[in-house]
Amino acid sequence: MTHDGRPLAIFDLDGTLADTAHRQHFLERTPRDWGAFFAAAPEDPPLAEGVRVCLTAAEECEVVYLTGRPERCRKDTVAWLAAQGLPAGAVHMRRNGDRRPARTTKLEVLARLGRQRDVRMLVDDDVLVCLDARRAGFRVVPVTWAAETTGEAMRQAQGEGRT
């Protein structure tokens, strides 16, 4: 992977750049309908504040995306990022079938990236990811702009290893 030498600004997607409110109802049923939840992701409206923060960070940093979405969503995810006018950047996704919590999978990627590059910031809405990243020495920008659009089912799902 080539890079431009600038520090990294790492952005989560769901609840940070993408408003998932319209598809969270798929997580409110038992069992949760993960297929439908992720299939609806291309219709996510952007979160204006997240987009603004990302574009501002891109002025000084190379933007990288770190999501709990499974790898099978890559094509739709890359297309969504481009459609929102967000900077091109590496997209790190969860392996298909990996059910470990985001705080585990994301911290593994963060640690790997941090060994290779200067990580200026992680921007994420998952409180547990933010806590663990901060404990690991990363500068964290916790998302405050999407709290009203993140339902309880989504917060629970973040701890279950699917988002």
Notes on the protein architecture:
The chain is α/β, with parallel strands linked by helices and 163 residues long. Helix content is 36%, strand content 16%. The chain contains six helices and five strands, in the order E-H-H-E-H-E-H-E-H-E-H. A five-stranded parallel beta sheet has the order 3-2-1-4-5, covered by helices on one side. The longest helix is centred in the C-terminal third of the chain and has 15 residues, at 102-116. The mean pLDDT is 91.
Topology:
Layout: E1 8-11, H1 34-39, H2 48-57, E2 62-70, H3 74-83, E3 91-94, H4 102-116, E4 119-124, H5 127-135, E5 140-142, H6 152-159
Parallel strand pairs: 1-2, 1-4, 2-3, 4-5
Helix pairs in contact: 4-5
What's the number of extended β-strand segments?
A: 5
Return the string of H and E elements.
EHHEHEHEHEH
Instruction: Provide mean pLDDT, rounded.
Output: 91
Tally the helices: 6
Rg computed from alpha carbons, rounded to a whole number of angstroms: 15 Å
- Coarse morphology: globular
Strand arrangement in the largest pleated sheet: 3-2-1-4-5
Structural class, from helix and strand content? alpha/beta
Please summarize what this structure is:
This protein has helices spanning 34-39, 48-57, 74-83, 102-116, 127-135, 152-159, and strands spanning 8-11, 62-70, 91-94, 119-124, 140-142. With 163 residues, it is α/β, with parallel strands linked by helices.
